Amino acid sequence: MSNKEVDQLVDPAELVEDVERVLRSTGVVAPARLGLEHRGSWLGVMPSAGQGFYAVKVVGVYPGNPGRGLPLVRGRLFLVDAETGELLLEADAEAATGWRTAAATAVALRLLGGTGGVLGVLGAGVQASYHLRLLTRLYRYEHVMVYSPTRNRAEKLAAQYGGEVAEPGRLLREADTVIAATTSREPVVLGRLLRSGAVVASVGAPRPVRELDQDTLARAQCVLVDTRKGVLSESDDVGEKLVEVVELGEALRGVKNCMPGEIRVYKSVGTAILDLAIALHLYRRLGHQDS
Predict the structure, then answer these.
(1) Contacts for 141-144 with beta carbons within 8 Å, 24 or more apart?
(2) Which CATH class is domain 3-96+273-285?
(3) Residues 6+ apart with CB under 8 A from 73
């Protein structure tokens, strides 16, 4: 399946339910990702298993590709029958990753109360685009604001959703929900500017990217994360000594609650558990209802 075919097949509301169902499950296994470097490029292999299936995502970062007119990031997602080894699904990873990351954020926002008011998005790349695409379909936001250092990209993205381009300071002060989807190495979410009760989602930003400052953590007191191990080992945004950390799955199962302070924060760096969820969603949407 191409990225375009994935986009056409996904049902946002059903995907969010599928992601939540997998996150609630205690029978899903996702070992640490394997990463390799060669000639300046990076290749990651991310396996997961559950509900009678294996999912494997193979994704690479190829710094020389933009100069060749090719994508910087390329990858494929596979779904395999765990009993027979039959390959059931193969799809481009970019769209699949965009959708599953945004769906997990939607689940977190439902728990944290970030489903209305003004939505502010920092960034105008792939993740920002998929988050706007999914969240505005599911939730009722009164207004959308977008910021990117590349203004024409911000203008184009904001226009798609009847929103406006806003400087980051204004966006942080006025937004009820803030999505940070950037590649910044300096914090873009400044806690002192956030309104009381604001909800922040920092997505897909492993080191050296840094999106949350210390004031944000201090005001949050607790951070909801996609996986504790992933966020603590791959990101510099959250330190367990600085703030309480609760996994999204733990919160959904009622094992542990994330008691917020003045603001509420969700942090994700990605997990193969979500790759299994989107692969199962696509497989089911193709007509395999028993998946």
Answers:
(1) 141/116, 141/117, 141/177, 142/116, 142/117, 142/118, 143/118, 143/119, 144/118, 144/119, 144/120
(2) alpha beta
(3) 59, 60, 61, 62, 94
Structure-token pair, residue 170:
């204004």
Range in 49-58, 129-138, 194-203, 251-260 with the lowest mean pLDDT:
251-260
Nearest by Cα to 180 from 263, 68, 80, 95? 263
- d(Cα 7, Cα 22) in Å, to the nearest integer? 21
Residue range(s) of every CATH 3.30.1780.10 domain in the chain:
3-96+273-285
Distance between CA atoms of residues 81 and 19, nearest Å: 19
Cα separation values, 60 from 30, 74, 229, 240, Å: 19, 5, 22, 30
In this predicted model, what pLDDT tens digit does every residue of 131-163 receive, in sequence order? 999 999 999 999 999 999 999 999 999 999 999
Residue ranges, comma separated, of all CATH 3.40.50.720 domains in the chain are 98-271
122 vs 77: CA distance, rounded Å: 27
Average pLDDT of the segment spanning 50-78 = 93
Question: Which 3 state secondary structure label does DSSP give 194?
Answer: coil
CATH topology of domain 98-271: Rossmann fold (3.40.50)
R_g of the chain, CA atoms, integer Å: 18
